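@channel anyone free to eyeball this complex?
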Amino acid sequence: MTWSIIDTWIVIIGALCAAGCSIPGTVLVLRRMSLMGDAISHTVLPGIAIAFLLTGSRDPMAMLIGAVVVGLLTAFLVQVIQSLGNVEAGASMGIVFTVLFAFGLVLMRQAVDHVDIDPDCVLYGSIELAWFDQDPDGFGIPRGAIVNGAMLLANLFVMFLFYKELKITSFDPAFAKSQGIHPSFMHYLLMTMTAATAVSAFETVGSILVVAMFIVPPATAYLLTNRYGMMFVLAISIAIASAAVGHVSAITIPTWFGFSGTSTAGAMAVAAGAFFILAWVGSPSQGIIAKQWQRNSVRLLVLREDILGVLWRLEERGKKTVVPTQLTEAIGAHSLLVHIALFGLQKTNAVEKTTMYWTLTKEGREKATKLVRMHRLWEVYLDEHYPQDVHQVHQAAERLEHVTTPEMQSKLGDAKKDPHGRRVPDDTLL
Amino acid sequence: MRMEEGHSSTSPVSIHDLTVAYHRKPVLWDVDLDIPEGKLIAVVGPNGAGKSTLIKAVMDLVPKASGKVMIYGKPFRKQRKLVAYVPQRESVDWDFPIDALGVVAMGRYGSIGWCKPLRKQDAQIAMDALDRVGMADYARRQISQLSGGQQQRVFLARALAQDSSIYFMDEPFASVDAATEKAIVNVLAELRSTGKTVIVVHHDLQTVREYFDHVILLNMRVVAHGPVDEVFTDENLKKTYGGRLTLLSEAVDRLARH
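replying in thread with the prediction:
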C-alpha cells in the first residue's frame, strides 16, 4: 500500500462529509423518516441544475440556495401529497423524489450544453480528485475539505443550539406544540439542514455516499445506545471510522486480487454497512448474540427449576437420590444441558453430589417446595377457570410456574389439593 | 349571534361555539362550555364522540373550523404556561433513546425557553415529579423497559413538572395496572387540594362517581355537564351513548356537504 498526502486528504474530506451527514441523519432516523434523507439528496439535483441554468455558472452559493429551496419544496410536497392524496409517507416520498430527480436529469442534459457538468460525477462523486481542486490562496487545503468542514460546523452548531427542541419535537410533537415549541418549524429546519448538507457533500463525494451516511451510521448508533446524546456521538464516530476504513480498504483489498483499487466513495459506504452488521451482531443490548445469550440463560434458569421440581417429586415418592440420566429422561433435555444446570445448582448450594448420586440440600428443598406449590396452585386455578383435560393443565402449569411473581401468587389462592388429588406443599412451614 | 357576556373570564377554560372537523366531517359541533375552577372533571362519551379532539382543540393541536377558546379570559397561545398536558400513551414511540427522567424533564422545556439548556432546578423538579408518582427508582431506566402503567406514570410526572394551573389528561387510566391507577388517583386528589383544575378524558363509567367532581357528557355536542351527582344519571348516559344523536350527526354531515 502506498500512502500519500492525497490519501490523507481523501480520508479527511470523507470523514468531514460523513460526520456532517450523520447529524441530520440521526434526527431523521429517530423520527422514522430516514427515507427523507434519500429523497432530499436526490432532489437537490434539479435545484443545482436550475441554479446552473439561471446563473450560467458554478457559483457555490447559487447551488446551495437552489438545492435548499428544492429540498424544502420536496419536504412540503411530500406532506401535501400524503395528506391530500391519502397515501402513506413512503409512497408520497417516492412520487415526489423520483419525479423531481427525473426532472433534474432532464434539466441537466440542457445544462450540459451551457455549463461544464458531468451527471456521472453527481452520482459517484470524485473524492479521488478532490485534492487537486484547491483555491490558489487556500493554504493547500482542498476546496472539498473547506466546504464539508464548514457544513459539519454548521450542523454541530444547529445540533447544540436546538438540542432539546430537536429532542422534544422528535419524541412527542403534540406535547412540544402545546408548550409552544413548534414541530413544523423544527421539521423545516431539519429539512434545510439535510438539503444543505446533501448539496455541499455531493459534489465531492457523490450522492451514494451522502445517502449512506445520512442513514447507516445513525442506524448503527441506534443499535448501540439508548441515550439521545450518545447517539449523536456514536453516529459521528462511526461515520468518521467508515471514511477511514473505507478508503484504506479501497486501495488495499482490490490489490490482493490483482486489481488496481476501487471507488473510494463506494468503499466508504460499504464500510459503514460493515459497521452496521457488526453492531447488529454484537450490540450489548440489541445484538443477536446478546439476545441469543439472554434466551439461553432464561432456558437454563427454567431447566434448573425443572430439575429442582423433579428432585422434590421423587422425594415425595420416597426416592432421595438420582443419577443425571434419570433427570435427562424425566425432563427431556440434552444431557449436556442437564449437567450444566446441575453444576449451576451445586454452585448455589441447592443440590449436592455424593459419588454419582444427586440430592436436594435443605436450601434446594425450600426452593423446590415453593416451585411445586406454585405449580400445583396453577393447576388448581387452571382447572377451576378453564376446565380441560388434566394433562394439559400440567403442561400449562409447567410453564407458568417459572414466571409467577409474588403478587400473582397471592391471587392464586390457598388450595390444599391439586386436581390430581396430590397435596399442595405448604412453604410457610419451612 | 350568541352573547359573549354569557361566558365568564375567570373560568379556567371557556369554550365558545367550537366546531372541529376532520376531512370536512364534523367531530365536534357547536360546543359551548365554561369549565369550573379547582375541580376534577371527567369528559365521558362513546368512541368517536370527540373527547380527545375537544382537549386537543383547546390546546390548538387540531385546527378549529369555527369558535374560540379562552384560558382565563385570554387565548391559549398567551397562556401556554398555565396548561399541562398528558397525551395518550400510544401517541409516542417508546423505543426512543431516552430515560424516564429525560422524558419528565421535557415538562420544563416550555418555561426554560428556546435554545437554552436545562437548569439545575429543572432536573430537581423533574426528579420530584417522578417521586410523586412513585417512579423515582426508575429515573435512569430506558423508557422501553418500563411497563405500560409505568410509562403512563412517566407521562403524568412530566405534566406535574410543568407546574401549571390547568391539567388536560387524555385517557390516563387506559389499560393500567392497579398500582398505577392508585398513583393517578392520588395525584388527582393532590392537584385538587392545591386548587388546580383537571380535565380528564375518561372511558370507565364505573369509576366516574368515585374519582371526579364534575362530568362533561359528550357526543359531538355537550349532552350535559355539571356536578357528578346531578348530571351523571342513567337518563343522561342513555342520551350520550344511545341512538338519539345519530339523527343529529346525519344532519350535520349533510350541513358540511352543502
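from a first look: Residues 120 and 206 of chain A are 9 Å apart (CA to CA).
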